[in-house]
Write a structure and sequence with these properties.
The protein has 219 residues and is an all-alpha fold. It contains nine helices and no strands. Helix 1 crosses helix 4.
Length: 219
Amino acid sequence: MLDSLWPLLRAGLVFTVPLALLSFLFGLSIGFGVAVLRLFAPWPIAAVARFYVWFIRGTPLLVQLFVIFYGLPSLGILIDAFPAALIGFSLSVGAYTSEIIRSALSAIPKGQWEAAASIGMTRRQAMTRTIVPQAIRVAVPPLSNSFISLVKDTSLAAAITVPELFQQAQRIVAATYEPLILYIEAALLYLVFSSVLSALQSRLERHFATYGGYLESRS
């Protein structure tokens, strides 16, 4: 376990963490755009956004990765392993976070829109200055949970040859024939990453806690 610790940790820091961060950032951007389209766009555009969410949420992420990496080359579209994983994870994150963001935006009372309009704000100003800041507080906990899940889901990238933490464990197992020890060690490293992110999530929730909310009532 000591001999394999640094190779596994390096794979996690070089591939797993960047893949999760980039996928979440791109996916969050996609999710926000899709959520806004579903709430405010004309119905044909909103229908396309709903179809995207329905399709991505209704099909396995592993199958999506295989289609992008192994299927698209049959159409002459060649994508390297890491970009293919990044595209697949970003599309998946975008679909799931769009529902979180849509629910958070919908949770803001209509009176907030009316109050913003009463002081002369345009719809865009009301969205950026009034609605979104309040929706962030609602969305932070589920978005944080989605990111923690994404860190663990990056292990699926091993199936399309991305040399992240889990595939590195598989390579070492192939050389040492010690699957139990190596896979337990990989699981512990994922647990460390998740624990650190859970601690950061708690700090974020306290930072964005609404006045009079549960967290503040305990303090």
